[in-house]
Amino acid sequence: MRFVIDRMLGKLSTWLRVLGYDTVYAAEVNGKIGAGNEDEDRALVALAEHETRILLTRDKNLALAAMKRDVQCVKIETDDVMEQLKELLQHSININLEPVPVRCSECNAGIRKIEEGEEDILREKNYVPKSMIGKWDFWVCPRCGRIYWEGSHWRNMREKLRQNLLLKRNALPKE
């Protein structure tokens, strides 16, 4: 599954990328298109149609435009990102609920594992835990250079998903 997301769902785009999904965020589509105007709406629908992506939006008019073009679309109702993920499940979009290191949460590019001998990439970044170099696996985004690893933030994401979604998944209404 691949997604395109409107500007009102920025946090959701980050979470879907963390969960391994190719997710295009409206603000990244074309810097020349103004936020929330009809040109942007047309561009998002066209992208979803051309690349067979699921359009996620909070905008009623954008959702209607997508449906008129037979583009798969989910109109998200809530502001809370965990509730938004639940809405996807309620719409039979069976997303993986386990973070996986395959996509950059910032730019959506595929990330790659840093191999032995490439440790200098890690030492250049002040946010990388130097004491863990050689002990943990690290990944790098070839597009923006961001470094990823499965540290405490990874455990925190898993716990947040478990508390908010996994435990409640069986309680979700069936359509």
Query: How many β-strand runs?
Result: 7
What's the number of domains?
2
List the total number of helices.
7
H/E element order: EHEHHEHEHEHEEH
Estimate percent helicity.
Answer: 25-40%
Average predicted local confidence, pLDDT? 89
CATH architecture level-2 label of the largest domain: 3-Layer(aba) Sandwich
Strand order of the largest sheet: 2-1-3-4
**Low-pLDDT ranges:** 170-175
Which overall shape is indicated by the principal axes computed on the Cα atoms?
globular
Radius of gyration: 18 Å
Indicate the structural class.
Answer: alpha/beta
CATH topology of the largest domain: Rossmann fold
How is the main sheet built?
A: 4 strands, parallel
Under CATH at level 1, the class of the largest domain stands as: Alpha Beta
Give the N-to-C terminal Cα separation. Answer: 20 Å
CATH fourth-tier homologous superfamily of the largest domain? 5'-nuclease
Q: Note the beta-strand portion.
A: 5-15%
Description:
A hairpin with a 6-residue loop joins strand 6 and strand 7. The chain folds into two domains: about 1-100, 5'-nuclease (Rossmann fold, 3-Layer(aba) Sandwich), CATH 3.40.50.1010; about 110-150, no CATH class. The model is unreliable at about 170-175 (pLDDT under 50). By secondary structure, it is an alpha/beta fold. Helix content is about 35%, strand content about 15%. A four-stranded parallel beta sheet has the order 2-1-3-4, sandwiched between helices. A three-stranded antiparallel beta sheet has the order 5-6-7, with no helix packed on it. Helix 5 packs across helix 7. The longest helix is centred in the last third of the chain and has 15 residues, at about 150-165.
